[in-house]
Amino acid sequence: MNTEASPSAADERVASYRSPELQAIFGVTLMAVLGVSSIAPALPRIAETLGISAGQVGLLVTAFTLPGVILTTVAGILADRYGRLRVLLPGLILFSIAGAACVFATSFPALIALRVVQGIGGSAIGSINVTLIGDLFVDRQRTTAMGLNASVLSIGTAAYPAVGGALAMIAWSAPFALALLALPVAVLAVRRLHVAPKGHKADLKAYFGDLWEIVRRREVLVLFFASTAIFILLYGAYITFLPFMMAGRFGSTPLDIGLLMAGLSISTAVTSANLGRLVKIFGEVRIMRIGFVVFGLGLAIIPLAPFVWALAVPAVFLGFAFATTIPVVQVLLTGIAPVDRRGAVM
């Protein structure tokens, strides 16, 4: 098995906001988080307009994220065998077209169906971005690149709720039009990510045998569990629950919700930009443990907020926690997985 693609080139790459390859990856990352964060503030208005319950409108998040749970590994396997771009580009295009089509949906079932299709496209981009970082950067530069990517992700999750909330004030379906941004990102990926691994068509039996040996390792199972827990906490307990709590208890508008949720993202961006320094001080495992403790604390104090803007405190806590868990999990996994198995592992 190959452990690194073009190791000499990867050794020479410096992770910075000016890196052409990283800029393209940042674009992909911004699309990966657009599908949920841009519509979260609009969920109460969508429920009111379509005459559905809070539980039903939450299916718009589930319909988008569930295909990723099922198909991300399949997309990773295809990316290992046929190349990153051959999977990434169709995913971006499908994500964009299906997402924009939601603007014209005239019924809730049609909206759910389009969100599923958009989620299928999203499943091809949600992990390939960090896989590409693992391919193109090594050692400390890889950790720095993951931190920078998380900070850009946070900029997106800060901006999208505010933009989505503002658009929802105009029309409940307007936030879905933001998916069209994936088309120029696809063009940028073609121009700047041609250095990505082209794929390794190894014998399937050998491929899955090696893959099984990787995923059964104790440290990999722990990292998988950690990433799943973060996913459930972030999308279930925070992104879906918080907008309804704010609207129901405090009478918040979609724009208020978007601005409050942006607090988490700003905290994540600041922490992520300094992740390399934090890892150097505490080490990867210790900083991840600290992040999980802060995660629990942030979630615990959300119901105790006496007024709406008091929710900024748990938002800051959760932002710090997100920045010190997800990127570290990604760094550890990319370090364990060889390049020709990395797509499936991520």
UniProtKB/TrEMBL annotation:
Alphabetical list of InterPro entries matching this protein: MFS, MFS_dom, MFS_Efflux_Transporters, MFS_trans_sf
Major location (coarse): membrane
GO CC terms: plasma membrane
Transmembrane segments: 22-43, 55-79, 91-114, 120-138, 145-163, 169-190, 220-245, 257-275, 287-309, 315-339
Domain Major facilitator superfamily (MFS) profile stretches: 21-346
Location within or outside the cell: Cell membrane
Name under which the protein is recorded: MFS transporter
Lineage: Bacteria, Pseudomonadati, Acidobacteriota, Thermoanaerobaculia, Thermoanaerobaculales
